[in-house]
Design goal:
single chain; Rossmann fold; alpha/beta; 33% helix; binds nicotinamide-adenine-dinucleotide
Length: 243
């Protein structure tokens, strides 16, 4: 049986890819919750609201009759005051979890980040899902993403809710505004003539379509007794490349 999907942050980069992938595979019940509406499709129901306000998100989860909630919303890395990261990634994610439990939602997939296990100092080599969170988080973005992830995973099994988290690395692809456009601006402004380090650092990246597909697979595989429930999955494109 197919699900009623609610994509939180569904008008953002990753969220929109997820919505379009759901549309492409012929899903009939797709809703989006976002603080801004950027797309106006007739096949998708849009709810505009702030996820840090319980009533806003609860209204969307209830009215959309969601059976699968995919939560991609977060302030941009490095692009918001500390308080906003706490408000959206922790308080907001708690609102999502509480509302899913209260409304008997079956599945919750959370977009975390591969960087939640990085402390910003010690290189991670061959890290995987068993690598623990660092004692001192790299920054407020990663600290709050990790706390949000934990809230989602701890809710697994409560009132029938099954949860898991996807940890993408740096995401690239059509509609990206965070990585490639600023890199092009740096090139255009001739600001590439300095180098920090010996240029041997490696970094994982993930193509956005793979990230979107991972979310759909995760949702599809969340069922009673599934080994996916309560787990995190790092999603990369394979071999790391120089950063
Ligand atoms: P994005 O900014 O394009 O999308 C996020 C969406 O969330 C936006 O549409 C925004 O309007 C919405 N949003 C923000 N605050 C909200 C609030 N309070 N209430 C409702 N909606 C709100 O970002 P993205 O690049 O698509 O990132 C999606 C997810 O992937 C995020 O959780 C991010 O932490 C994670 N992630 C991103 C990257 C990357 O390289 N872009 C890497 C790893 C993890």
């Amino acid at each position: 049986m197919s699900d009623n999907y609610l994509v939180i942050g569904g008008d953002g980069f990753v969220g929109r890819w997820i919505v379009e992938m759901l549309l492409k595979r012929g899903e009939k019940n797709i809703s989006v919750f976002d603080i801004v509406q950027r797309y106006f499709d007739k096949e998708v129901t849009h709810y505009v609201g702030d996820l840090s306000n319980y009533n806003d998100i609860d209204n969307a989860i209830r009215k959309s009759n969601a059976t699968s909630v995919i939560h991609t919303a977060s302030p941009h890395y490095g692009g918001a005051p500390n308080e906003l990261f706490w408000k959206v990634n922790v308080d907001g994610t708690k609102n999502v979890v509480d509302s899913c439990i209260a409304n008997g939602v079956k599945k919750l997939v959370y977009t975390s980040s591969a960087s939640v296990i990085y402390d910003g100092v010690n290189p991670l080599v061959n890290a995987d899902e068993t690598t623990p969170f660092p004692e001192i988080p790299m920054d407020v973005y990663n600290e709050t993403k990790a706390k949000g992830e934990r809230l989602v995973l701890e809710a697994n099994g409560t009132n029938g809710l099954l949860t898991c988290a996807i940890r993408p690395s740096g995401i690239f692809g059509p509609n990206d505004k965070q990585f490639i456009p600023p890199a092009i601006r740096v090139m255009e402004q001739g600001q590439t003539k300095f180098q920090i380090g010996d240029n041997s650092n490696l970094m994982d990246w993930t193509y956005v379509e793979n990230v979107a597909y991972a979310h759909l697979l995760a949702s599809d595989k969340l069922f009673d007794g599934s080994p996916v429930a309560g787990e995190v999955f790092i999603i990369t494109n394979g071999t790391p490349i120089p950063f």
